[in-house]
Amino acid sequence: MKAVIQRILRGSVTSEGAVVGSVEKGMSVLVGISREDTKEDMEYIIRKLLGVRIWADEAGKMWSKNVKEIDGGILLISQFTLMHVMKGNKPDFHHAMNPEAALEMFNTLRDTLRKEYAEDKVATGHFQHYMNIEQVMDGPVTLVIDSKDKKNN
């Protein structure tokens, strides 16, 4: 499982002409689920999302606080294209989990984040829909977490 985390001042997802998810200060998270991902991969990503320190403390010391400590939002967006491999100039997505299983894992990820953090702080887009994502990045700060590469995360 891969997660691309971006620190944001605000963000929203629009699908079929309506805003389906939005958050204020916090993080935008693109989530790619591979066909080999397990519950352990998901749990690893959850720990990282809730624990990653990408905000300053009150004294201005950077990299001190996590999303829970700033009472921030998490905008969680399914992104199967993170599982791509390039075949020449064309992306191939055969490493992505099939949509039915990926939806189940994505929903479990969302529900667990809401349970371990706060239901009203975790918003999502629409799974397997065309979406427009609008966000105001803060920094910018962008991190990539890969559950298969734990030694470098």
UniProtKB/TrEMBL annotation:
EC numbers, comma separated: 3.1.1.96
Main location: cytoplasm
Enzyme class: hydrolase
Ranges in coiled-coil conformation: none
Cited NCBIfam families: D-aminoacyl-tRNA deacylase
GO terms under cellular component: cytoplasm
InterPro entries on file: Daa-tRNA_deacyls_DTD, DTD-like_sf
Lineage: Eukaryota, Discoba, Euglenozoa, Kinetoplastea, Metakinetoplastina
Compartmental location: Cytoplasm
Keywords: Cytoplasm, Hydrolase, RNA-binding, tRNA-binding
Gene Ontology MF terms: D-tyrosyl-tRNA(Tyr) deacylase activity; tRNA binding
Family as reported in the entry's similarity comment: Belongs to the DTD family.
PANTHER family associated with the record: D-AMINOACYL-TRNA DEACYLASE 1 (PTHR10472:SF5), D-TYROSYL-TRNA TYR DEACYLASE (PTHR10472)
Protein's name in the database: D-aminoacyl-tRNA deacylase
Reaction equations catalysed: glycyl-tRNA(Ala) + H2O = tRNA(Ala) + glycine + H(+); a D-aminoacyl-tRNA + H2O = a tRNA + a D-alpha-amino acid + H(+)
Transmembrane segments: none
